[in-house]
Amino acid sequence: MKKFRFPLQPVGILRTHQELKAREEFAAAVHAYVQVEEKLGRLRARTAELAELLARGRTDRFIAADAAALLRVYRNECQAVLALELEVAEAREKMQLKRNAYIDANRRLKIVQRLEEKARAHHSLAVQRASQEELDELAGFRAFRQLSLS
Model's pTM, two decimal places? Predict the structure, then answer.
């Protein structure tokens, strides 16, 4: 019997490469999202510290120039937080798009893999049938030879 040859093997190779590329892009997007999220966490912590300083400054001796400078820094930090929240949302959206692309590439690869498995099973069954036919033929020849010799 012929050696197994899967006709869609080039498609499988191509889809394997596409799936690998999509996985790497998804991993990079996740990494970028995590970095931006951590940066946002640090910025929020710094903003909370500034808010605490502002509140503490109101209970202690009030110096208008220091309070105005601190308030200006606090507002800048709050604006930076808002800008970074938008960046986090964009990174999350990009990560979701890359995730969907990876899932799609993986799904298309699995289709080819299932087709190959079915083709291999079909080929294996054909090989087993051909082998069984050969054994049956040999058994028939032996039986005929024993009958003719008796």
Answer: 0.75
pLDDT digit string, tens, across residues 110-135 = 999 999 999 999 999 999 999 999 88
Q: For the chain, how many structural domains are there in total?
A: 1
User: For 97, phi and psi rounded to 5 degrees?
Assistant: -65, -45
The CA-based diameter of the chain, rounded to the nearest angstrom, is: 125
User: Is the CB of residue 1 less than 8 Å from the CB of residue 130?
Assistant: yes
79, part of any domain: yes
With a CB cutoff of 8 Å and minimum separation 6, the contacts of 22 are 98, 101, 102, 104, 105, 106
Q: Is 3 contained in some domain? A: no
Return d(Cα 18, Cα 111) in angstroms, integer.
14
Structure tokens at 48: 């909370």
**8 Å CB contact between 126 and 46:** no
